[in-house]
C-alpha cells in the first residue's frame, strides 16, 4: 500500500476511487450546483470533493432506471443471478480496498470494516441464488371451468436511501434483492459516505450490470434528492435505513403516490442478563452488541439490564474489558474504538452521560473525550442508571454502556418494552423455559439469545413498532421487490 499524500493512494486499485455521481452508466463529475467536501472523521482532513446532485440529476437517474427496467425485467433469472455472482466475486476480490474506503470516510476500525465487506458481499451471493427461486402458484378454482394462476413480477423502479454507519452493507442488502427480482434501483448514499457506494457502482459495472439498472446520486442535499425519490411517479418502491424521524417524513411524502415502502428505523435495544447467565458469554455478547462501530449501530445494546444476583460481578468484569479497549484511528490494526461520525454525535454522548449522572448514575470508566481530541470519545460504562434517564428512552449512538439493575422477570420485560422502538434485543440465560417466555414477550423484531451477533444474510432483519416496516435479508427480502399478479382463466372445458 502506497504511503504518499493523496487518500486514493491507500487503494491498491486506484480506479475504485470515484468522486463523481454514477447515473445511467456514466460518471457525472460536475453539476450546476457545485461540490461539497468530504472529511475524514479521524482528523477532519478533507479527503474529496463530490458533485452536489439535486432534483434534475435525481430525475435523470430515475428516468434512466425506468428505461432500463423495460429490458432488465425481461432478462432471465439465471442471467441476473450470474451478474450478481460476478459482483460478489469482485467485491471479495477488492475487499481490502473497500474496507479502507469505509474506514477513511466513516471511521470504522479497519478490522470491522473488513467484516462489513464480507457481510455486504453475503447479500450479493444470497440474492444471486434467490433470483432463480422466484415463482408463482396454481390455486384451485371455485368453478371447474376456471384455473387460477399467480405470477410474481418485479415492482419497478426502486429508490434506496442509505445511512453512513454501514455504507456498504446497507446498499447491498437493498440493491441485490431488487436487482435479483428484476427491478432497477437509484441509490442515495449518506453524504458522509459516498466513496464506498461509488466503488460498489464501479464493481457493479465491471460485473455486467447494464447502464441505468443501478445508479448512485451523490450530494448533501438530502431533502432535495429524497423529495424527488419519494415524489416521482416512476418510483414504485422506497427503501430506507435511518432515523425514525426521517422515516416518518419519507412515508408521508411517499403516500401521495402510494409507493410501497420498507423502513429500517431507529432502535433502543435492551440486553437482559439474568442471574443464571454464563457471564463469560454475556460479557462477550454485550461487548459485541454495544461497541460494534464505536456504538454507532441501530441494533447496538443501548440499555443493559442486569439482575441483582450478578449485577456487581458483571459490572466489575465488564468494566475491565471496556477499559482495555484501544481508542485509535480506524486505520490502526489494533483500534477497537474509532472516531464518532461528527461533532453532533460527540455532543449527544456527553449530554446523555451528564443527564444520567445528574439522576444518580456512576461513571465506572470513560465518561470523557479521548486525549486524541476531535471526535474520539472514551468507551464508557455507567452503573446504577435510572429508567428515567435519557439513555433509557433515546438511542445514544455512541460508546456508552448504561447498566440498569432489575429484580425479577416481569419487571425487566416491562422495562425492556418501555420504548417506542422495537428493532434489536438480547437475552442471556441458561434457562430454556425462560428463553421461550422472555423472547416471545420482548417487543422487538430481532432477539439474540446468548449472542451479540445476530445479523446475517439468511435471517429476516427488521423491526416492529416505530422501528420500521418490512424485512431485509432471508428468503423474505426479495418479496419486498415483487408484486403478486392473479390470472383467472375461464372457459376451460374437458375434452
UniProtKB/TrEMBL annotation:
The keyword Aminoacyl-tRNA synthetase does not apply. Keywords: Oxidoreductase. Residues 27-486 form the Aldehyde dehydrogenase domain. Belongs to the aldehyde dehydrogenase family. One of its GO terms (molecular function) is succinate-semialdehyde dehydrogenase (NAD+) activity. It comes from the Bacteria. CDD domains: ALDH_F5_SSADH_GabD. One of its GO terms (cellular component) is cytosol. InterPro entries: Ald_DH/histidinol_DH, Ald_DH_C, Ald_DH_CS_CYS, Ald_DH_CS_GLU, Ald_DH_N, Aldehyde_DH_dom, Aldehyde_DH_Superfamily, Succ_semiAld_DH. This is Glutarate-semialdehyde dehydrogenase DavD. The gene is davD. The active site is at residue 264. PANTHER family: SUCCINATE-SEMIALDEHYDE DEHYDROGENASE, MITOCHONDRIAL. GO terms for biological process: gamma-aminobutyric acid catabolic process.
